[in-house]
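Sorry, can you check?
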Amino acid sequence: MEIFYPPVGFHFKVEFQDLDKEDIDVRFQSINGLTVDMQTQSVKEGGEHRFEHVLPIRTKYTNLTLKRGLTKNSKLIEWCTDAFKTLLIYPKDVLVYLLNEEHEPLMTWNIVQAWPKKWSVSDFNAEKGGLVIETLELEYQYFTIEQ
């Protein structure tokens, strides 16, 4: 009998489409923002004072935030800094893979038309012995989930 265990959240990989694949650009410390929310509108019905009708309008996807140790000579960061310098946005699809113990995808999130919205570096602090972390925030249209 096969035993089912929920997948672990620390075994994942990220790929940027149409970007030279470097091993450094698929390794991240954390990813968040794989969230979709239904925006609604309240409608009041004449004569009915006990409640309001809540109707769905559209979906809203939160920004995707990727964190990792600061890297040099990264094609991903070149793509971001080019966008910030020139204000020319070249969106890319991003694949986020949740991996199993055999390093095979359990689930895949296809993030459509992502572009860099924010890039930041953690504070430098001589009193703490931490790593310098770069954070990349991406705006995107929507995502699909493949299993």
Summary: The chain is about 10% helix and 45% strand. Strands lie at 12-16, 30-32, 36-43, 53-61, 64-69, 92-99, 105-121, 133-139, 142-146.
